[in-house]
Amino acid sequence: MSDVPMYTTAERDRRWALARELMDAEGVEALVVYGEHESSGPAPFAPDVYFTNERPGAIVVFPRDADPISLVWSPMHVEDHIEGRRRGDAGWIEPRDMRVAKHAMGVVDVLKEHGLERAAVGVVGLEPYPPFHFNPIMPHTLWASVLEQLPQVTFKPVWLSLLLRTLCQSEEELAVLKHSADIGEAMAQAMLNATRPGVTEADVYAAGMAEGFRRGAAAPGMLIQSGPGFACWGPPTWSFRPQAPRVIEDGDVIMAEVFCMYGMRESQHQVAIAVGEVDARVEQAAKVARASYDAGIEALRPGNTFGQVVEAMKAPMEAADGWNVHPLIHGLNPYGTVCGFGGGLRRLPEAAEYGLLMEVPTVGSDLPLAPGMTFAFEPNCVIDGHLANLGGTVVVGADGPIELNSLTTHLMRA
């Protein structure tokens, strides 16, 4: 696997220059960038890695006049960094700029060392990060302590500014994403190969995950459901509730969402496998989902807005009197834009038994599309309680969309 794409120092310099341009635009003298803990599963909030190219889970303090400083939570980070240097890895963070100090005092010490006790400082981590974090992710106790110790610093949330500057991927990033998408496609093929009556959901799940791991990707679990017809979405029930994985039967449909990550560039793949002859309503829903996919591809052009793509993808679903259980499309690398979903939940006869039911609204409708932006296409449709879901990863190209996947954009048949 010596031909896998890797980042050069040119990519590091591009990202660090972007950070300094952001500081100029926002009128701040440094950035404090909070990264979620490692092994956090799908949709990690890891802007720290964007600047370090290192193990996730740090707070990065990036003064305008210095290289970024990585505050890590454990000596293990340092040990890994040492071993990487011994093996010749091209690290971005110098040893002097890595500290076991992922806490309030660590942040305070760095800002004081750079004479920023009365400066304006930008912060990443004080704003929502949909669709998984509709509340800010910065720990309250940590941030309250920083505020108490630096009462004369003006802290300014700048996540939205960073998001808008990083949505368009560089050529190096797109090469890494393409590699991830190729692995995700292979994972879907392995799942199809493993599917037949008598195996379990766990067998299909394992086949996909094993293929991703074999090819050197980080696959943080997947969503999977099976049955003759259903209208739900999520991780396998046996992953959170003690029960046996469901046995696949003839006439079932398997729906899954594969999360594949290589080098912190994420691709997503919507697996739909028909096992033998499936219910006509599943077949109809799959046709609607494919029409939604095609409409989204047609609308994914520079100059259009994210909201226009959402409306185009909703049109076939609404014309069929269907509804979507999860987003039809959302942004990737990083997350930010997301199509609304869940509005049809009230159609289920059991819905009246539940408390407050609210749909997730569309976020980022006004964002203009530009070349290099990446999206998870996830067109899905429920027809009379029967869900079909398909799609893959798509890039906004200068002359039209670039589809990184083809296998998962149709209902597959086992």
UniProtKB/TrEMBL annotation:
Pfam families: Peptidase_M24 (PF00557)
CDD domains tied to this protein: APP_MetAP (cd01066)
Protein's UniProt keywords contain Transmembrane: no
InterPro entries: Creatin/AminoP/Spt16_N, Creatinase/aminopeptidase-like, Pept_M24, Peptidase_M24B
Entry keyword annotation includes Cell membrane: no
UniProt keyword list: Aminopeptidase, Hydrolase, Protease
GO MF entries: aminopeptidase activity
Domain called Peptidase M24: residue spans: 177-396
Designated name of the protein: Aminopeptidase P family protein
